[in-house]
Amino acid sequence: MTMQRLMQVPLAAVLPFLEGALRAAGERRRNASIIKSLRKAENLQCREAAIRCRQRYLRRARGRSLVTAQCLLSLLAYACCPCSCD
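^ thats the sequence. predicted structure below, dont judge the formating
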């Protein structure tokens, strides 16, 4: 099609396509926002779990001059620890 013919297409003929495209774009945006929120919530949960681990290991390590490797790793970690800290 030439450019002149494209300019002559009535808006009513293109409207269903445009509505679908806008709807799909809005859905992708919402899905991306939900995924971002879920990742943020998961990150916060992991940080809270790491803090609980650090507190537990620090309570155990009080009075000792030796810091275990597991305690040191829990102090440095910002991800969920492999142990069950709850």
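The mean pLDDT is 76.
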